[in-house]
Write a structure and sequence with these properties.
The complex is a heterodimer of chains A (285) and B (245). Helices cover 81% and strands 0% of the residues of chain A. Chain A is mostly helical and 285 residues long. Chain B has helices at 43-50, 85-90, 94-97, 105-117, 133-145, 163-179, 189-195, 218-225, 232-236; strands at 3-14, 17-28, 32-36, 58-63, 68-71, 151-155, 181-185, 198-203, 205-210. The longest helix of chain B has 17 residues, at 163-179. Classes of the chains: A mainly alpha (285), B alpha/beta (245).
């Protein structure tokens, strides 16, 4: 299918779910790209993974009681993030172990909860791997509004996040509330993840958080540039991924993630200063 | 001379273990004080106590107006972060700029001024990841200087640096100590002995505090470093024990 046919399908009223899915995928990719920069720079990819899995019981409960998936997922993600933050204050417990305990526990809870729902195998599949159908109109506004709020919080707290990431001890010496800043960041990660779960699925959402920011880091040594590149890479890959998935009848989440991975590999090889091939060429030239 | 930093009978417990016990010391205005002691003596804890980063079990820490500027060990800083030298220094002003606000002209001036004073003015746009060890140490000093603190607290600034970098830094610290006070925790006894106005010997508590020339009694060094009378440490410091006949 050519890109033009895809465009025609996007405006075809019988396929109204398609532009909705595209809008949600692109908006959530932008959110994940921006927050993902902090996730990657702080080396908290594991926390991203944990939060991504931790939203699952919330989605399951919301599904069981026909509530809002967004609200359910956010509550579960934030509760898990809080538990991790609080338990990590104990010096005997390493943060990564605490994360390991809670995220699997949350995921297990989700599986137990959703098993109580009739015909759960299909919905489980949808949660884990994403789907482009069955997105209510309301979700468009929720994702759009959440995206704007998230970007506003990032803009307001950016320099504090940077200070904490650069040097935690110094940030504390300066009097920054590191615990609260961490918590706000976890909430932002949770929100970005919940918005993306619908289309890309629970298991693959980590790629949207980590891969664009990692690729952007290879392309630039400047943080502002990185924070523009990452959402651009995420959004572009969401668009291309959805197009390929629609054209060749491939699962949407998997296709988007593979496109992202291809972008990352290209950046790894061809980045202007640090690319593997670029350096090789510069040496032989 | 009025003091800019006073620790009065400070005790700190870390994980149920007494890291500092009844430590009392002060730093006067314009003074360059060396804080020496073996590993685990509580040097970093003492600096952190002065900064209010650890809860004090007893005693109190008083810092003059202007506060303390902290220069932590180099490995505490995320050098792989995509930040320029001036961004890194600006991060020290994050509280002064204020919540939800962006740096203004006066903040950039403070950053550039601090970078000039550590002689990194030419490198202000360079990514921090591309700096040498000595340059990184100077970035951390500039970050602390940017808020014009009354006293600079340096934690092991010489670790892992070659001699030329160490000398350049020593010269810088001596200059800085003329306009503000400097308290430096260090393993480098020789440098501390010959450049600091006064040494504080620490092992859980303050064992002695005096100019090096007045620390001729080997007993205080033996107590601080837990060494015997034949230790090469004493020989290196030209201290001989007066053996009772």
């Amino acid at each position: 299918m050519s890109p033009l046919d895809f465009l025609a399908d996007l405006v075809n009223p019988d396929l109204a779910f398609l532009p909705k899915a595209l809008a949600i995928a692109v908006m959530s990719a932008v959110m994940c790209g921006v927050v993902g920069c902090y996730v990657v720079l702080r080396g908290m990819a594991f926390i991203g993974d944990a939060v991504a899995h931790a939203v699952f019981p919330g989605l399951a409960v919301a599904f069981l009681f026909s509530g809002s998936l967004v609200v359910g997922g956010t509550v579960a993600g934030v509760v898990t993030a809080l538990l991790i933050a609080v338990f990590s204050q104990n010096r005997r417990l390493k943060e990564d172990s605490v994360i390991g305990v809670f995220f699997v526990a949350a995921f297990a809870l989700g599986i137990v909860v959703i098993s109580r729902a009739p015909g759960y195998a299909g919905s489980l599949q949808q949660f884990l791997f994403g789907s482009i159908t069955g997105i209510p109109d309301r979700d468009l506004y929720v994702v759009g509004g959440t995206g704007l709020a998230l970007l506003a919080v990032v803009a307001l707290l950016h320099k504090e996040f940077v200070a904490v990431t650069l040097d935690r001890e110094m940030a504390r010496a300066l009097g920054l509330r590191t615990f609260w800043l961490d918590l706000v960041l976890y909430v932002l990660v949770t929100l970005a993840v919940v918005m993306a779960v619908q289309t890309i699925g629970n298991i693959l959402v980590l790629a949207l958080l980590v891969t664009p920011a990692t690729a952007a880091r290879l392309l630039t040594d400047r943080l502002p540039a990185m924070m523009l590149l990452a959402p651009a890479i995420g959004a572009g890959s969401a668009l291309v991924g959805l197009y390929l998935s629609w054209s060749y009848d491939l699962p949407v989440g998997g296709t988007i993630v593979l496109v992202l991975t291809a972008v990352f590999l290209l950046a790894y090889l061809l980045a202007p200063r640090h690319g593997v091939l670029t350096r090789q060429l510069a040496r032989t030239a | 001379m009025t003091s800019v930093l006073d620790l009065i009978a400070v005790s700190v417990d870390l994980g149920g273990r007494a890291a500092l016990q009844d430590a009392t010391m002060s730093v006067a205005g314009g003074e360059f004080v060396g804080l020496v002691g073996p590993n685990g003596a509580g040097k970093t804890t003492l600096l952190r106590a002065a900064l209010g980063l650890v809860p004090l079990k007893t005693g109190r820490a008083e810092v003059a107006a202007g506060g303390a500027g902290y220069v932590p060990q180099r490995h505490e800083f995320a050098w792989d972060f995509p930040a320029s030298v001036q961004d890194a220094v600006m991060s020290g002003l994050v509280r002064r700029i204020g919540l939800f606000r962006r740096p203004r002209v006066e903040h950039w001036r403070a950053v550039w001024d601090a970078l000039d004073r550590v002689r990194l003015g030419d490198l202000r746009k360079r990514p921090v990841g591309e700096l040498s060890g000595g340059q990184r140490q100077r970035v951390l000093v500039a970050r602390a200087l940017a808020v014009e603190p009354a006293v600079l607290l340096l934690d092991e600034p010489f670790t892992g640096l070659d001699m030329p970098s160490q000398e350049l830094l020593t010269e810088l610290f001596t200059t800085l100590a003329r306009e503000r006070s400097v308290l430096m925790a260090t393993h480098d006894l020789a440098a501390a002995a010959y450049t600091c106005d006064r040494l504080v010997l620490l092992n859980r508590t303050v064992i002695a505090a005096a100019p090096f020339a007045e620390l001729g009694d080997p007993a205080v060094w033996m107590r601080t470093f837990q060494v015997g009378p034949e230790s090469h440490l004493l020989k290196a410091l030209h201290l001989t024990i007066a053996v009772e006949a």
